[in-house]
Amino acid sequence: MILFVAVSARMLAQLARREGHAVVAVDRFGDLDLQELCPSVSIAPDLGGRGGMAALVEVARRIPADRVIYGAGLENRPDLVARLAAGRTLLGCSPRALRRVRDPAQLGASLRAAGLAYPRTLAAGEATTGADRTRRWLRKPLRGGGGRGVREWRGGPLPAGVVVQERIAGLACSAAAVGDGRSATVLGISEQLIGRRDLGAHGYAWCGNLSPPRLPAVQRRALADAATAICAHLTGAFGLRGLFGVDVVWDGVRAWVVEVNPRPTASLETIAAASGTRPFAAHLEACGGRLPRAARVPAVAGPPRSAGKAVLYATADVRLGDTRDWPRRGIRDVPQPGERIAGGRPVCTLVAEATSPDAVLAGLQARAAALREELHDRVAVDAVA
To answer: Mean pLDDT of all residues in the chain?
Structure first.
C-alpha cells in the first residue's frame, strides 16, 4: 500500500492506479474522481496555512501504509515530511534536500557556480537598498506554490517570509524529471499557463500546462538541452530523489530557473499523455536508485500528440449542481454534487489532447467557456433561491 499526502492527490492516485498500484490518499479536497479511484480522507481546505498541512499529516500518520509519497504543499514543510516518513519508506526527496533546494540563497549560489541562469533574488531586508529600480521585480512568498502571493514589486516595505526576484521576460515553462540522488532523466517539458483570464485566473496564478511548449523546433531543442543540464546539476548538488519539477523562464536563449519543486508536479499527466511515458514507474525506479533509460524528451522528439490541462477558477461564489457526469466529459478534480466554491478558488481541471499545443489550448478554451456558462447559470439559480 502506498500513501499519498498532498493538497490535491487525484493526479498522483490516477497515475499510480493506472499502473496497478494499491494506494490510499489524504488531501484537502476529497474530489469525486479521487474517491472513485481509491480509499481517501479529506481535510477541509478552510483549515488552510500551516495548520492545514499539519492536520493532513496527523491524519496520514494513523493510516497503515509502508510507503509514503508527498505532493504539493509539503515541499514547504520539511518538518512535517519528517513526521510523515517516521516508520515508513519515504518515496521522494528527504527533508534535508527540501530545506536546501527551497532556500533561494543556496539554490542561486549553486546554479550560478555551475554557470546556469538564476535571476537576482533578494531577501526582504535587502530589497529596499539592493534592488535596482530600473529593473522589474516580483515579490514572492518563501513558502509559496502555484503562483499564489506573487505580485509586482515597485518598492516599499516588505514583511518577513518573502523574497524579491528580478522578473525575467520570456515564456514560462516547466521541466519534469526524476533523480536518483546523483543524476537525472528529464521526462518532458511543458509550457505553463499563468494568470489567464479566460480560465478565471489572475496575476501570476498557475492555471495549467501545454506539452510541448509553443516554441519553434530549434528553440524547443535548445530548451530541452538546457533543462537536461539544469536537472542533472540540481540532482547531484541537492540529492534529489524521485519526481521533481523545475520552473524556468525561456528568454529565447537561456532557461532561467525561478523555482524548484522537489516533488511530483502537476504537469506530469500532460507529459504522460503527450509522450506515453510512465511517470509513476519512473518515480519508483528512481527512488530505488535506478534511473529509467534516457527518454527522448517530448520537447525535442515532437510527440505524435500534444496534451494539456487547464484549471478553471470560479469568478464568483457558486453552488454546483450534479457533477457526477463530469469525469465522463474529460473533467478532472471534480467537486462533490452541491458543493459550494468560493470566488477565486479552483473549480476543476480540464484535460485535452490534439495534434498541436495550439489546438489543445483552443480546445481547452472552448470547453472552459462552455463550463463557465454552466457555472454562471448556477450562480443565477442560487441567487434566485
So the answer is: 89
Domain boundary among 166, 187, 220: 166
By the 8 A CB rule, do 91 and 70 touch? no
Single out the residue of 242, 305, 275 nearest to residue 97, CA to CA: 242
Q: Which amino acid appears at position 250 of this protein?
A: W
Note whether 324 and 370 are same-domain residues.
Answer: yes
Question: What pLDDT, on a 0 to 100 scale, did the predictor assign at position 380?
Answer: 44
334 DSSP 8-state letter? P
CA pair distance 192, 288, nearest whole angstrom? 30
Instruction: List 6's β-bridge partners, or say none.
Output: none
Alpha-carbon span 42 to 27, nearest angstrom: 5
Residue 39, domain CATH: 3.40.50.20
Distance (Å, whole) CA 17 – CA 22? 7
- As given in the structure block, the three cell numbers for residue 8 are 490535491
Total of domains in the chain = 3
Phi and psi, residue 266, nearest 5°: -65, -20
**156 and 57 within one domain:** no
d(CA 331, CA 322): 13
* Statement to judge: residues 250 and 134 lie in one domain: no
Q: Where are the alpha helices (DSSP H) in 208-250?
A: 217-238
Q: What is the pLDDT of residue 45?
A: 53
Distances (CA, A) of 113 to 13, 109, 123, 146, 234: 38, 6, 20, 27, 12
Let me know whether 86 and 157 are in one domain.
no
| Residue 168 dihedral angles phi and psi, to the nearest 5° | -100, 130
Q: Which structural domain, as residue segments, surrounds residue 157?
A: 120-166
pLDDT above 70 for 145: yes
- Grid coordinates given for 376: 454562471
Distances 37 to 9, 21, 91 between C-alpha atoms, Å: 11, 11, 21
- Which residues have C-beta within 8 Å of that of residue 83, sequence separation ≥ 6? 57, 61
In this structure, is residue 96 part of a structural domain?
A: no
For the chain, the C-alpha Rg in angstroms (whole number) is: 20
pLDDT confidence of 125, banded at 50, 70, 90? confident
Q: What is the pTM of this model?
A: 0.91
Say if residue 253 is in the same domain as residue 217.
yes
